[in-house]
Amino acid sequence: MAPDKSTEKKSAGMEFFENVYRSIFRYGRIPQDGEGASYAVFNNLFLHIHPVKVSRHSLKFTYTFGLGVIATSLFLILTFTGVWLMFYYYPSATEAYGRMLDLRSSVDFGFVLRNVHKWAAEAMVFFVVLHMARVFLTGAYKPPREFNWVIGVILLLLTLGLSFTGYLLPWDQLAFWAITVGTSIAGYAPVIGEPLRQFLLGSDSVGQEALIRFYVLHVVILPGLLYVFLAVHFWRIRKDGGLSHPSENEPQDVAEKGAEL
Amino acid sequence: MKEVDTTQVYPQDPNKTYGLMELVRGTKPTVGPAPEDMVYSWPHLLIRELVIFLTVAACLLVAAFLFNAPLEELANPNHPPNPAKAPWYFLGLQELVSYSAFVGGVVVPGLLVVALILVPYIDRKKVGVGIWFARERWLANGTFLAFLILMCILIIVGMYFRGPNWGFVVPWE
Question: ipTM of the assembly?
Answer without folding.
Answer: 0.88
